[in-house]
């Protein structure tokens, strides 16, 4: 049963969005529960990243409505860093950029900012990498630095695009535990993922196909063998 409306962090009604000459999301009516983890699942090109951009407020709706309980800027962790690998940024610099949402890039950091940065690196297990250049890191180390950067924003709504893709089991479990901790602290987490194990651990699931919502609800109700077979047109085991 869906949570009552006052417990929703985001409500989309008949939402449509896309790119010039390419409509993607169609008639999407979906909700994102507060202080919980929502997994957005669907095949390549089904509109997961587009939906995250809508939730982040960086892609406008072309039709329909979106109500967001949070007024502050959401934390948004993209699949790849917006900063080039060749730019000389340390891991600590990268995580510190998460505080710019509060300070702006040119304001001095407060001791609170510094302690948030250190705590976020600690939570992602990258404190020992703090002085290393981002461009020298492995994919998994880099991914943890980007999640730490998003976490450092201390946003009420935390959006992540495939945060566990390409990670080994330990790094993946580490990131999922951090997301669990954030939700327990009251943060609303939304992650787009191809990882059905991660999706099964979420509290709520949105299943997309061709920009339309196929189902939403608890993962064990949404991610059934039949639904996955229907979505991918071939046998994908529900785990
Ligand atoms: N910047 C863009 N300009 C034009 N079309 C885009 C843009 N970004 C995505 N698209 C198109 O929008 C559709 C949905 O893409 P989107 O990235 O949202 O899907 P996705 O479910 O996140 O896919 P994946 O699992 O491959 O990451 C695709 O057809 C894609 O080609």
From TrEMBL:
<dbReference type="GO" id="GO:0005524">
    <property type="term" value="F:ATP binding"/>
</dbReference>
<dbReference type="InterPro" id="IPR027417">
    <property type="entry name" value="P-loop_NTPase"/>
</dbReference>
<feature type="domain" description="ABC transporter">
    <location>
        <begin position="10"/>
        <end position="235"/>
    </location>
</feature>
<dbReference type="InterPro" id="IPR003439">
    <property type="entry name" value="ABC_transporter-like_ATP-bd"/>
</dbReference>
<dbReference type="InterPro" id="IPR003593">
    <property type="entry name" value="AAA+_ATPase"/>
</dbReference>
<dbReference type="InterPro" id="IPR017871">
    <property type="entry name" value="ABC_transporter-like_CS"/>
</dbReference>
<keyword id="KW-1278">Translocase</keyword>
<keyword id="KW-0547">Nucleotide-binding</keyword>
<keyword id="KW-0067">ATP-binding</keyword>
<keyword id="KW-0813">Transport</keyword>
<dbReference type="InterPro" id="IPR047748">
    <property type="entry name" value="AztA-like"/>
</dbReference>
<protein>
    <submittedName>
        <fullName>Zinc ABC transporter ATP-binding protein AztA</fullName>
    </submittedName>
</protein>
<dbReference type="Pfam" id="PF00005">
    <property type="entry name" value="ABC_tran"/>
</dbReference>
């Amino acid at each position: 049963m869906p949570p009552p409306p006052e417990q929703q962090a985001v409500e989309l009604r008949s939402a449509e969005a896309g790119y010039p000459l390419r409509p993607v999301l169609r008639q999407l009516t979906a909700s994102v529960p507060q202080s919980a983890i929502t997994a957005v699942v669907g095949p390549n090109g089904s509109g997961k990243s587009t939906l995250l951009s809508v939730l982040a407020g960086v892609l406008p709706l072309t039709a329909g409505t979106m109500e967001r309980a949070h007024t502050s800027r959401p934390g948004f962790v993209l699949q790849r860093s917006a900063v080039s690998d060749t730019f000389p940024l340390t891991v600590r610099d990268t995580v510190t950029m998460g505080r710019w949402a509060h300070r702006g890039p040119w304001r001095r950091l407060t001791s609170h900012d510094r302690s948030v940065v250190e705590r976020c690196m600690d939570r992602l297990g990258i404190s020992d990498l703090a002085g290393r250049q981002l461009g020298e890191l492995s994919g998994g180390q880099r991914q943890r630095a980007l999640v730490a950067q998003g976490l450092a924003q201390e946003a009420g709504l935390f959006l992540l695009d495939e945060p566990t893709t390409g990670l080994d089991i330990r790094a993946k479990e580490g990131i999922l535990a951090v997301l669990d901790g954030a939700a327990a602290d009251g943060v609303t987490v939304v992650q787009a993922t191809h990882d059905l194990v991660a999706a099964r651990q979420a509290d709520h699931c949105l299943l997309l196909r061709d920009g339309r919502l196929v189902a939403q609800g608890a993962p064990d109700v949404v991610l059934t063998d039949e639904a996955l077979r229907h979505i991918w047109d071939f046998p994908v085991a529900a785990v």
